[in-house]
Amino acid sequence: MFRPRGCDPNLDCTIGVTLSVIGPNQMKVQMVAATIYPPVQQQYVAIAFSHDRAMGNDSVSECVISNMGEFVGYEPEVYVSYNKGKSNDRVFLNDDEHAELFTGLAGEVVDTRLVCEFTQQIMPQIDNKNGLIWNLNSPFYIMAATGSAQPDEVNAHELNRDSHSFPITSDEMINPVTFGNNFEHPTGFAPKINTNRIEKRVMRPTEAPKSSASLIPLIPFVLSFFFF
Predict the structure, then answer these.
(1) Helix (H) or strand (E) holding 98
(2) Which end of the chain has fewer surrounding CB within 10 Å, N or C?
(3) pLDDT tens profile 55-68
(4) Cα→Cα distances 102→32, 64, 189, 211, Å
């Protein structure tokens, strides 16, 4: 889906999203959005899965890219969130859950265009967080939106329906699995950890380990990603 209709996502689309199933339980999401003017420190582009064509009670995957001010140079982030009515709340995932649900994240700002891609599990193999994380092997209306973001939440998207940056919604319900029918997908969540298992663990030291001069401090670095 792209806006305006017939636009080139490398040149003049104000917002767009593509889906493809690239493997068992793996859905690749690619999104593009024009940068907001005046520029903001953090901008998101998001895809939502809904049971109707109106915002509310939707599962959302949002990519946040930072390009200005105190956040310049930060790596892109992807979050799962939930539209509760007309508000959006992020769903907390620990590092292991996040690494299980999302892989292959890449994104940057190129020539005033926000581009982002990631792979997401279709049937999440993590806890559903009291129903806030959905099995996407089902028909949904697909939505895409962009707007400014903050470190812990996204702000409201464009509300003017005549604006090219107003969210786009599919005309029909779509099951993402239909974009790759030659793969088998899990039908449920199979926990990888047996919570009833009793393990013998090595005792922790009673004293803090002494520092070693041979330890080399880690040097942070930033990767640049190019696609499209």
Answers:
(1) helix 95-101
(2) C
(3) 888 999 999 988 66
(4) 18, 14, 15, 35
